[in-house]
Specification:
Layout (H helix, E strand, L loop, with lengths): L7 H28 L4 H9 L18 H14 L1 H8 L1 H11 L2 H13 L4 E4 L15 E5 L2 E12 L6 E7 L9 E7 L4 E6 L10 E12 L3 E2 L5 H37 L1 E2 L2 E2 L4 H29 L5 H26 L10 H11 L6 H13 L18
Bound molecules: flavin-adenine dinucleotide (FAD).
Flavin-adenine dinucleotide binds next to β1, β3 and α11.
């Protein structure tokens, strides 16, 4: 039987995340947005409460939470501020390829580091000339005996300027397109440089950096999975993290909806609250429907993962619909506020700016549609087990 009622434990997790967002994030969110302020104190508190790294298995010091729980947390934190929620959640993106393809020793070393201290890790896939088209990346990893030598630059890396280690994708066979990409864990050392911190339209309290690897050496043991299998690892990672992004989008949309509903009951025009005008009611109704539908897709895509099933299609449905809905809902929230919606003194313009990133990172809405079209026209069974694959680490 399908039952969408949360268990007591899930309600508790959601309530804890909501309290945290209400007390620690909301009160500073708009100030941090204006200043592009790095939320170090909030990261540390979130880590102490177990709101960070909830996906890490207990054997590496984590809490072993489910994907579903992480999505409950994601919606609440993004309701507080999507930039801070992204900062808190980005370790999952870096850690997932390690969980999927790392040796026991690599997992023990790098995942435990995140569990034992409020440290950060970043996922380095994008390059200036390789965004949606990952296969055109130029970063290289050349094997020299027992080590790989990594050279190249990655851009738009979330938490990049503050990370202690990176999951880096590099070409190990330059002529093999996406079949020539491998993934590595790379600790930060003096050969890894932070070249640029981006000044962004939205998500301003998050750090987005250009990171360069200059003759950076890692042991062969830091290869994740098999050589030249990095593209697959990246795609498997995104299947697992897109429900989380969609949960953030739902949280932003919910925040905008709440502000717009309250405002529509207070703002008087033509002698009545604007909520009495049918045009406003219909906007509010459409917002509510989009949020409810986004959440159901998030839950569906996360539950499939928790059941060990392949969720590629539903994950892209959730990311695409959640992101586009967040953009529409926040734009309508600005409309409900009228001219005041355009003014920084009022809360909704920030939400509209933050919503935009949801349509861009972890695969644009166009790329999600490509995935959905492929999965729909050439369907693959959902039942294929997606437990971490035993990708052998090269000796
Ligand atoms: C704030 C922020 C944080 C980020 N964090 C990370 C991170 O932590 N790690 C990381 O690796 N990357 C990160 N990214 C990068 C992000 O994932 C990329 O920006 C995104 O994948 C798009 O790549 P691009 O910007 O090069 O756009 P392009 O790929 O150049 O796309 C430009 C436009 O063309 C469209 N397009 C491209 N190809 C097709 C196609 N085949 N069919 C239809 N339309 C197409 C796109 O949808 C888009 O509208 C981040 C980006 C931002 C802005």
């Amino acid at each position: 039987m399908v039952d969408f009622t949360l268990t007591d434990e899930q309600e508790d997790i959601r309530e804890m995340a909501h309290d945290f967002a209400a007390k620690e994030i909301r009160p500073v969110a708009w100030t941090y947005d204006r200043g592009g302020t790095w939320p170090q104190g909030i990261i540390e508190k979130a880590w102490e409460l177990g709101l960070m790294n909830s996906h890490l298995p207990e054997q590496y010091g984590g809490v072993g939470g489910s994907y579903f729980d992480a999505c409950l947390v994601g919606e609440e934190l993004a309701w507080g501020c999507a930039a801070i929620a992204t900062t808190i959640g980005a370790n999952e993106l870096a850690a997932t390829p390690v969980l999927l393809g790392g040796s026991d020793q690599v997992k023990e070393q790098y995942l435990r580091m995140l569990a034992e201290e409020p440290r950060l890790a970043s996922f380095c896939l994008t390059e200036p000339d390789a965004g949606s088209d990952v296969s055109s990346m130029r970063t290289t990893a050349v094997r020299r005996g027992g080590r790989y030598l990594i050279n190249g630059s990655k851009c738009f890396i979330t938490n990049g300027g503050y990370a202690d280690w990176y999951t880096v994708y590099a070409k190990t066979d330059k002529d093999a397109g996406h079949r020539g990409i491998s993934a590595f864990v790379v600790p930060k050392d003096e050969t890894v440089t932070v070249d640029k911190h981006e000044d962004k339209m939205g998500l301003r309290a998050s750090n987005t950096a250009t990171i360069s690897f200059n003759d950076t050496e890692v042991p062969v043991a830091n290869l994740l999975g098999q050589e030249n299998h990095g593209f697959k690892l990246a795609m498997m990672t995104l299947d697992r993290t897109r429900p989380g992004v969609a949960s953030l989008a739902t949280g932003i949309a919910r925040a905008a909806f709440e502000f717009a509903s309250d405002y529509s009951k207070e703002r008087i025009q033509f002698g009545v609250p604007i909520a009495m005008h049918e045009a406003i009611q219909f906007m509010i109704a459409d917002m509510a429907t989009k949020i409810a539908a986004s959440r159901l897709l998030v839950w569906n895509s996360a539950v499939l993962l928790d059941q060990g099933k392949r969720n590629t299609l539903v994950s892209s449905h959730a990311k695409r619909f959640g992101a586009d809905s967040a953009m529409e809902v926040t734009t309508d929230a600005v409309q409900v506020y009228g001219g005041y919606g355009f003014i920084k003194e009022y809360p909704v313009e920030k939400l509209m700016r933050d919503a935009k990133i949801m349509q861009l990172y972890e695969g644009t809405s166009q790329i999600q549609r490509l995935v959905i079209a492929r999965e729909t026209l050439l369907p693959r069974p959902v039942e294929v087990p997606q437990k971490p694959q035993p990708l052998a680490v090269a000796a």
